Structure formats: C-alpha cells, structure tokens
Amino acid sequence: MFENCGLVISAGIGVALMAGVSALPTVLLQWRGQSWRMKHADYVQ
Amino acid sequence: MTFGRIDPTPLRFYDFIQPLSMVKYLSVVIPAVAYAMVFLMSSVLVTVEIPQLFGEAFHFNAQQLGLQFLAIIIGSVIGEQLGGVLSDKWMTLRARKGARPPPEYRLWLSYIGFILAIVGYVVFLVQTKNAGTHWNITPLVGAAIAAAGNQIVTTVLITYAVDCHHEEAASIGVFITFVRQIWGFIGPFW
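^ inputs. structure came back:
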C-alpha cells in the first residue's frame, strides 16, 4: 500500500477506514444499541 | 502440589467454537469490528511499519529501531490509564444524576479514542514522510498518540460489549480478540 500510494494517501485511506468502519458504526451502535439489546430478551438492561 | 482441572465438566468440541456464536449480537459484532480496524491501523500498522519505513529512510540499525517502540509503550500506558479511569468516572458521574445509565452512554468516550487514534496515525505517516532522511521525534509522537487512542478504544468498546451481555463475558472477550487477530493478520498484506 505504501509503495503504491505513498505515505500521505495511505494516511487518507486509514482515516477513511477508521472513520467509516469504526467511528460511524459506533454512532449507529449508540443510537440503536439499546433496542438491539432489548430484542435479545433473555437479558434486559 | 497437585494439578487438576478447576471445573470437572467434560470438554466438548463446541466449547472451542462457542465464542463465535457471539456474532448474533450486533452490540458485540460492531464493537469487535470497530476495535479490530482501529487496532489494525493504530497498532499493527505502526508497529510493522516503523522498522520498514524508518529502516529505509533513516538507515537505522536494530537497536535504534527497537528504541522507537518506547513511544508506543508510553502512549499505551497513558491511554490505558486514561481509558480505564475515564470510562468508570464517566458512568458514575452520569449515575449520580439519576438511574444507572444505559451501556450506550459509555460510547461517548470511544470517540475520544477514535480521534486520538486517527490523529496519531496521520501524524505518524505524514511526519515520517516529511522527515526525509533525518529522524525527528514527531512521527513517534504520532505513534504514541495513536497507541493511546487504541487503548481508550479497547477499554471502552470491550467494556461496552461485556456490559451489554454480562452472562457471556468470557465468550465476548474471546470473540473480540479473535476478530481483532484475524483483521490484524490480513491487513498488512495490503
């Protein structure tokens, strides 16, 4: 990756991956997490 | 001194793959994936690339390369202390205002971890490029920040996942570690 794209573009790729795969799903999780948990009714918080 | 099993229940094959059944809980899968990606970029990539990039750019010998990793140690220690303390203080602070907050409230802290990991990662790469042929400390500052962010994300996300399903705590830990290891293994091939 570094050889093909160079360091700076790789930095951009990393930011996009971390934002898109980690941060955004966490936003979704924070929004919806409670209702997802409730659906697994054996454990109610 | 005698050795023996703590729990005499017979081992079954299913015991080894049971943690994979955690995939049915989205509130475990998403933290696992999010954590794995951050771990890959801010920890694995930085660790693998320090010898690669610094070796090529600065012509370091093994000892010099080894010393670079001090930055990661410092960053990780700071991040772990911050993550652990903040995580619990955050929740107890909120609990004082009323009933015990839902586990999702803890996730506010993960964003600090994500930001630190992203910023540290970018600083590491950009500053390594800017350094040219003369080493300076700034890429390692980035590596330390990324390591701190990684630890905060680790603490917050795993605590959240276990908080959601207390009874599966052990399996959740194994599952998240499994996803993280696979991700961290596949990533560097790019």
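The radius of gyration of chain B is 19 Å. The first helix of chain B runs from residue 14 to 17.
thumbs up if we can close this ticket
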